[in-house]
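User: quick one, sequence for these tokens?
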């Protein structure tokens, strides 16, 4: 399968996953539990809350596509896991930073720099947690495979 088909297939699978994770996390972590939008800065640009909800869904789908398609990096077998992780981190961080900047549209203020700094810290912490869990799971899987191979060789 060529690269364009792989990317399209990943995008079609990861967009609904991004939307579902976005809705789920919004329902759990929304500070006001406002059913209309998590993008309150965008509300002033739209006449109806339905439009704001569509923007929410679009952004969540876009985030799902970014993570789904960037996972192709881990299929490059000639790269070390360190290089794969650094490239994946950079792609996802810069993509989400752009979305974050556009989603928090308001007039220029120094608070934007603080918001970007806060976003960067949050992103790094979450990325580190997810990466650590993934690494631990991969190590456990390799140990399990090695144990099975060892048992098979003994028989």
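Assistant:
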């Amino acid at each position: 399968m060529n690269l364009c088909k792989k990317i399209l297939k990943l995008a079609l699978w990861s967009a609904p996953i991004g939307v579902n994770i976005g809705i789920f996390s919004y329902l759990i972590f929304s500070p006001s539990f406002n059913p209309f939008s998590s993008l309150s800065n965008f509300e002033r640009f739209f006449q109806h809350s339905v439009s704001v909800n569509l923007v929410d869904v679009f952004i969540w789908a876009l985030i799902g596509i970014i993570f789904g398609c960037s996972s192709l990096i881990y299929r490059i077998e000639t790269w070390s896991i360190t290089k794969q992780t650094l490239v994946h981190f950079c792609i996802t961080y810069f993509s989400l930073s752009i979305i974050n900047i556009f989603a928090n549209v308001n007039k220029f203020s120094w608070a934007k720099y603080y918001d970007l700094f806060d976003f960067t810290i949050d992103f790094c912490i979450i990325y580190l947690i997810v990466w650590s869990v993934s690494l631990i799971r991969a190590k456990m899987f390799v140990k399990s495979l090695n144990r099975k191979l060892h048992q098979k060789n003994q028989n």
